[in-house]
Predict the structure of NAD(P)/FAD-dependent oxidoreductase.
Amino acid sequence: MYDVIVVGARCAGAPAAMLLARAGYDVLLLEKARFPRDIMSSHYIHQPGIALLDRWGLLNRLRATDAPPIDRVVYHVGDDIKLEGCSLPVDGHSSAYAPRRFVLDPILVEGAVAAGVELREGCQVTDLLFEDDRVVGVRFRTSNGGESVERARLVVGADGMRSSVARLVNAKVLVEDAPRTCTYYSYWDGLDAGFELYDKPSRWVGVIPTNGGRTLVMAYFPQSEFDAVRRAAAPAFHQNVRTTAPELYERMSEAEQAERLYGTGEQLNFLRQASGRGWALVGDAAHHKDSIAARGIMDAFIQAHLLTDRIGEDLHDESRLNKALRRYARDLDKRFMDFYQSTLSVADLRVPESKLRMFRAISGDQELVDRYFATLSGAIDVKDFYNAQLLAKLE
Ligand SMILES: Cc1cc2nc3c(=O)[nH]c(=O)nc-3n(C[C@H](O)[C@H](O)[C@H](O)COP(=O)(O)OP(=O)(O)OC[C@H]3O[C@@H](n4cnc5c(N)ncnc54)[C@H](O)[C@@H]3O)c2cc1C
């Protein structure tokens, strides 16, 4: 009998398992994949996520890789607006990082194992054990093809957007919106580029330096174009970058594409009920949104932290645990609803006139530009961004 079984060992599951083990609990972490293994995702981590990695003692491991610190954003909107700056720091961290997932995820898993978590890779959870409507354990396929069960006071589903745990507990979908975008990306060697964003009607391009001297170039299209785009992904990708960011496209012609094109139209937007009796969800299992805002990794970290914090020392007292889990789910909805809505509005790939007016007003005012980037990173709230100084400019 474990205190906690965590299903899924990436950005949400590995930190949740690590923090629960550090809180003194006996934790089993089950993962169907074997690490290191890549996953469909770009990998920009905003400053609040970096601050959490530091707090957990894992940032030095990340810095020891060759992922470059990113402390400057260049954001082009249409043909005439260019904002350059950096998010305000969070706990002294002004740099973001974008480590490849086959670099980041093993660091997180090693952090969990060092905290005393028992990790079993190659184990796929196929069912949950229930007693009186309460989840009390899991059934899973083992790495040698057999079947096994383990019991725990709490089962945490950190098993991604298509979470089996969410399906098996019948977690309600609380909020759901139609997919807005689809995206394709690849990596270039020898591309002279920093962190760059290009925003034009129905198009968006992101450029992110990462490990191995490689640079990710990512193109977004409206979801309505997905069928056409996927039939001819490479020409569509090139056409998007050429028209959205012509000067970047010229630089790309001097560089070499180093990997195949990756892409997805599964940009689901939802919030699920995040806890019940004997179970909780973290990361994409609880809350998924369009990848355009690059917030999923950081939000998974925040949720892992929130869950552990809410449980505190209450795991062994059933009524206190139930209360803690309800509080976790409530706090998660409150905390992520605004970001969810603002992500949807970016994913509409249409900058409203009021926002264009705001961009023109802050352009050239470094303090306001940095504060705007701080709203994207989550370092400050949007309502705090619209301060007296900005409102005066907008009059
Ligand atoms: C195209 C794209 C670009 C993105 N770019 C960014 C970005 O730049 N920055 C950012 O912050 N976020 C980005 N995201 C989002 C980010 O990838 C996710 O939010 C993040 O991976 C969520 O982590 P997770 O641990 O919740 O889920 P996942 O990373 O999906 O991990 C779930 C794990 O659970 C395991 N699992 C699943 N089912 C079972 C089972 N039954 N038994 C055992 N194990 C199981 C899986 O093998 C997997 O390892 C992007 C996403 C996409 C699709």
In short: The chain is about 35% helix and 25% strand. The longest helix spans residues 318-347. Residues 353-394 form one domain. Residues 7-13, 30-33, 39-45, 124-125, 158-160, 164, 183, 264, 283-285, 291, 294-298, 300 surround flavin-adenine dinucleotide (CB under 6 Å).
